[in-house]
Amino acid sequence: MTTLHGLGVSGGSAVGVVALVALPAPLPDEDPSTDPAGDLSRVGDALDAVATRLEATAATLTGDAADMIAAAGAIARDPGLLDAVKENLATLGPAHALHAAVEGYALQFEELGGYFAERVTDLLDVGARAEALLLGRPMPGVPELTEPSVVIAHDLAPADTAVMDPAMVVGIVTEAGGRTSHTAILASQRGIPAIVQAKGALDIASGLRVGIDGDSGELEIHPDEAWLDVRAEKKRARERISQRTGAGKTSDSHPLMLLANIGNVADAELAGAADVEGVGLFRTEFLHLSATTAPTVEEQAAEYVRVLAPFGNRPVTVRTLDAGADKPLAFADLGPEPNPALGRRGLRLMQEREDLLDDQLAALALAATETGAVVKVMAPMVSTRQEAAWFTERAHAAGLPIAGVMIEVPAAALRAHQVLQVTDFASLGTNDLAQYTMAADRMVGELSELLDPWQPAVLDVVAAACDGGQANGKAVGVCGESAGDPLMALVLTGLGVTSLSMAPQRVPMVRWALSQHTAADCVSLAEAARAADSAVGAREAVRSAASKELTDLL
């Protein structure tokens, strides 16, 4: 057997034949345009056709998948892209003019970082699809599958991943991507085992039989019976574990609330039917990012009622609008910034546009009154005690009695003993916290090692936040996807976290992992992780000390 290694980003295992997603073929030679107006019209028609197809696909989906594909459709309709094509037609043919425009946009997006960098894969996919229409070539993407397959690609656009049939696509492997890439998010939501950063995977020939383990990150070529037997037993054990229900707690009954992360009404309906104790993160951007004008209080309240209704008396924690320079709003543009990830986003934007925050808080208060739901609100991108106090007072004044802050900035974690004096609770966003602690852009897959939440420095920052919570008798939860890692859940418990919020399908395994360890075990595991000198060392230290029943399933 030959084994390749990458980052496991969606758990589970599977076996199938390799289906390679070929890189786009080079463009043919073209003479400069002799009919710029006509060629511009052809390119516009191609982009419009791509947008129409993506919008039609988005309409058949729900949740993050629908949002991501709709965002790609919006890119295809961006008039600025067609303006760039028009300029290029002065010296290039239509296909090359489009390609150059897309490449130029992609470079700008990468330089802007944040939300824009997340759209680069979408942009390149839109360009490749439009080029194929212009040239009469087959549409790029996953080839037609006739048997259960492991799809291997350099990277995948959401338009490919979101429509994959789990019965035919049993695994996904990419050479690019990272822990928070679209491939990772969508594969996890669809229950498809996935690995990213698997260097050399594209060298595997189509049709070969391979095995994929989305927990360990292993890609096995020609897996033998022993490899298959181990994964089959793991799968049976996970199916048994998935039948367990109840509140989260350690074996000695130390409680840990197990909550869901949601982003829109469809997510809420799915999570509301799951065995979760509420919502630890409701991302409210879905109403704002695609709007050309600010949604009214009444429009927001109507949508929030639909989100709150499935949870009855279970608490729903709402993150107020996390937008700004890296997630631009058409109606709240503060202008370009040299480093949007460190710019006026989240609460920083709301302090400049208080009307947006006040409207959102008013809408949430209305929805809470109408549904009787337990609504908790929290502000993103908080750095100081003063910011925490400003938001908390404003939320309380709006009629929302439980207000807290996101701890994503190391400064807020290091001064949590002061921040939590003036607010009701805190929730740790471990993706951004790792990004800012390690000075590593979340969208650069090559920095995945630095962005690993197992980095001991990140764990030290989490511990500081938890210490601040304990000093003030305030709850400190985690709503980053690291909460869905069973081993990390034990460490977070040992550090003093009071709730864990994750994709709903990850809850059963975390619930079971907690039930196999005492609170004292979790403290010891946290100490072992913090004593390590690397992310790999921290995880291995915990893995070697955790219960064998758990580690046999990982």
Backbone shape: globular
**Number of strand segments:** 16
Rg (C-alpha, Å):
24 Å
The stretches of 5 or more residues where confidence is low (pLDDT under 50) are none
Mean pLDDT: 91
| Helix-strand makeup class | alpha/beta
Share of helix among residues? 40-55%
Number of helices: 24
The fraction of residues assigned to DSSP E strands is: 5-15%
Q: Could you describe the largest sheet, including whether it forms a barrel?
A: 8 strands, mixed
Strand order of the largest sheet: 1-8-7-3-4-5-6-2
- Intertermini distance: 20 Å
Q: Can you characterise this structure?
A:
This protein is an alpha/beta fold. It has 24 helices and 16 strands. The strands form two sheets. It has an eight-stranded mixed β-sheet with strand order 1-8-7-3-4-5-6-2. Strands 9-10-11-12-13-14-15-16 form an eight-stranded parallel β-barrel, surrounded by six helices. α1 (36-58) packs antiparallel against α2 (63-76) and α1 (36-58) packs across α6. The longest helix is centred in the first third of the chain and has 23 residues, at 36-58. The mean pLDDT is 91.
Task: Walk me through the topology.
Elements: E1 2-5, E2 7-10, E3 13-20, H1 36-58, H2 63-76, H3 79-88, H4 94-112, H5 114-118, H6 120-135, E4 149-153, H7 158-161, E5 169-174, H8 182-190, E6 194-196, E7 209-213, E8 218-221, H9 225-241, E9 257-262, H10 265-272, E10 279-283, H11 297-308, E11 316-319, H12 347-352, H13 354-371, E12 375-379, H14 385-397, E13 402-407, H15 410-414, H16 416-419, E14 425-428, H17 430-438, H18 448-451, H19 456-472, E15 475-478, H20 486-495, E16 499-502, H21 507-515, H22 519-531, H23 535-545, H24 548-551
Parallel strand pairs: 3-4, 4-5, 5-6, 9-10, 9-16, 10-11, 11-12, 12-13, 13-14, 14-15, 15-16
Antiparallel strand pairs: 1-8, 2-6, 3-7, 7-8
